[in-house]
Amino acid sequence: MVQIEVNDVSVKYGSYQALQHVSLKIPRGEYWILLGENGAGKSTLLRCLAMWMRPTQGSIVIEGSNAEHNERVLRSRIKFVPDTPVFYAELTAWEHAQLIATLHHLNNWESKAHELFRIFFLDQHQNTYPVSYSRGMQYKLAVLLTLIVKPALLLLDEPFGPLDPTSQSHLATILKQLCQEEHMTVVASTHLLPEVIEPDHLVFLNQGRILLDESWEPVKNQYPGSVASLPYRLSQSLFKNPPQMEIVRE
After folding, report:
1. What are the pLDDT tens digits along the chain (250 aa)?
2. How do 209-215 and 201-206 pair as beta strands?
3. At what angle do helices 110-119 and 135-149 cross, to 10 degrees?
4. How far apart are CA 208 and CA 231, in angstroms?
5. Which contacts (CB < 8 Å, 24+ apart) does range 227-233 have?
6. Cβ of 213: how many Cβ atoms within 10 Å?
7. CATH number of 1-77+190-250
8. Cα distance between residue 77 and residue 98, in whole Å
């Protein structure tokens, strides 16, 4: 079953075209990677999916409902972690978890939260203030807090960038398990790939356009070698005839 349909979506910031005629169909329970360099349009696409912004053109349908017309209902099933999460300076990590549980009217959430703190190796720091965390620890905490709610759709902006290689692979494994075991749909943007990663699908963006929209296995077979170097090798192959950026004059 298709959970997300992106239909001819374009986004314009003034005269700059951030996304150009993007169309995708993302099935429920799959793990998708949006790959591309800085400025490729990945974050803009995620913000549209999270309903943090509206497309200039086109439409997004989530779980059969038009995102623009059913924003309030859909938002409760979607969690978006931006590349720089923000925390309350006066709350500890555990108090953030308590706040999330209260706002979402969750019962018996504590055992799940303790498990998540352990899985993300933050159990020794749960009574510490997140503002004192490293950037990588902050991102892991932000993901952890969204998982307490068990969203149907999890959107992550540059989750691997702040993490060390071991943590990158650990997070990639967790995301795959969420899709397989809890039927969660995960869409993560990144400009790099952990060596240990097995998404279901890869989308390569450049200058707001989709250059590649393919299942993971064919891509991995076509470009054998180190997964970590795949973004560079894809760029070398796909940028031989790069599309021209469209500058729209007002």
Report:
1. 568 999 999 999 988 999 999 999 999 999 999 999 988 999 999 999 999 999 999 999 998 888 888 888 888 889 999 999 999 999 999 999 999 999 999 999 999 999 999 999 999 999 999 999 999 999 999 999 999 999 999 999 999 999 999 999 999 999 999 999 999 999 999 999 999 999 999 999 999 999 999 999 999 999 988 998 999 888 888 876 554 444 444 4
2. antiparallel
3. 150
4. 17
5. 227/193, 227/194, 227/195, 227/196, 227/197, 228/192, 228/193, 228/194, 228/195, 230/193, 231/35, 231/191, 231/192, 231/193
6. 15
7. 3.40.50.300
8. 19
Amino acid identity of residue 225, one-letter, is G
The two three-digit tokens of residue 85, written as one number: 């999460």
